[in-house]
Amino acid sequence: MKFSKVKLLAGVAFAAMAIAGPSVAQEPVTITVWSIDGANQAGPSDTFSKEFNEQSTDIKVEYRTLKFDEIVNETLRAYATGSAPDIVSLDNPDFALFSSRGAFLDITDMVKNSDVINADAYFEGPLNSVTWDGKLYGVPKYTDTIGLFYNKDMLEEAGIAEPPQTWEEFEAAARKMAKPDQGIYGATLSARGNEEGTFQFLPVIQMSGGSYKDVNTEGAREWLSMVKGMIDDGVMSQDVLSLGQFDSTGTFNSGNAAMAISGPWEIERMVKDADFDWGVTLLPTFKEGDERSSALGGFNLGIMSTTKHPEEAFKVLEYFVSQDDRLFPEFGYLPARGDIELPETGVEKKDAALKVFQEQLKYAKPRGPSPVWQKVSKAIFDAEQAALTGQMTPDEALSQAQSTIDSVVQD
Length: 411
Description:
By secondary structure, the chain is an alpha/beta fold. It has 2 domains: 161 residues, D-Maltodextrin-Binding Protein, domain 2 (3-Layer(aba) Sandwich), CATH 3.40.190.10; 191 residues, Periplasmic binding protein-like II (D-Maltodextrin-Binding Protein, domain 2). It is 44% helix and 11% strand. It has 17 helices and 12 strands. The strands form 4 sheets. Strands 2-1-3-11-6 form a 5-stranded mixed sheet, sandwiched between helices. Strands 8-7-9 form a 3-stranded antiparallel sheet. A two-stranded antiparallel sheet has the order 4-5. Helix 9 packs across helix 16. The radius of gyration is 26 Å and the shape is globular. The N and C termini lie far apart (81 Å). Belongs to the bacterial solute-binding protein 1 family. GO terms for molecular function: maltose binding.
């Protein structure tokens, strides 16, 4: 009788478990991803998030698009209030701000044990931008840099055999090709008072022996004097002080500038819009054979340290990385890895330009890394604006920037 009662109770318990089973089935783990992709057109993060959801049943990605100017502050606020996403994509110079504060998860060991992510495959610059104090806090998402686009037809008309390789040659060529009375400028670039201005000016500082910590170099002063003279003489448009890279390159595409400093993100648009023969060369140096430098652009992906699901978040990260070979063919972005060969497009100008940018990437240096990058960047682009508008001499502007940087950067 006692035995039967036990069997009965066991049977009831088993039945209850069977009935309750479906209602307590484990729900998929939700991983939130924030990025700027998808704001204007489809990008890697929004595309890969959707595809991941189509393949996964135990992990679901909840994706959110934010604006470029808002994502850093929005993520900082979310981190401070305990509502941060699991994964966020940030412009590479902003990464150190989060890594140094412990806001990103240290994934060094996870990467070492990964069959998908190989840290050794990444270019040095992009890898440095996700490294802090010798540890990995993320993975490069994609990269880019800047070079010098030139109008071959205009060079030929001016009797210039080769695109300029030094800044002296750059100025001479720009002055020879400029036709201010016809609204045609010798060159264009972005000296805007924001990160784009720093992005294009910092390489000049670096190739003249400086760094983001040491900005008042002789070469930087000479370059600012050169550009100001070109603006004053109508060789460059006054608009370079307010134009972003997209708009300044548009001036080149329309045939109203003979040269433009810009990046590979413009190639596709240039192929469609530029009704002339064009090419790309490496950024000029101060003297032939001098040290080269270029800006390191692109975004990174990091897992927030507050995530409740680090293993699942890392699986999402691995999936994103596994799609790196699609970055250029589908989105026009350059992979941050040297083990991915870009396919030939069959478009001669495009393929030739890509080879130049891949060469330029060898000399690209990260902005920072520094946890106070935003303050450093502001000091740099403020100095550029002050010098090019004539509010200060180049030496005064860069001296002021150096003083600001010295006060915020702690070695």
